[in-house]
Amino acid sequence: MKAQTFDDYLFQGIQKLDFDGNIELNWDKEAHVFELNFTIQVENAQHTALNGKQMVRLSR
Fold first, then answer.
1. pTM of the predicted model, to two decimals?
2. Averaged over 31-44, what is the pLDDT?
3. Vertex 55: Cα angle to 49 and 58 (nearest 5)
């Protein structure tokens, strides 16, 4: 098995996800922190008002 870095391992795993959206993985070497950003689009058939501070439960 070929050796790989942890961030490469995470990136390759993220690329395999069946995810209808955009996923971005960032590695801050100085702070030793991974940042995972993802964007999804959802349908709001009931036209319920949501803001960024509300908890939203996603289900398939």
1. 0.46
2. 82
3. 90
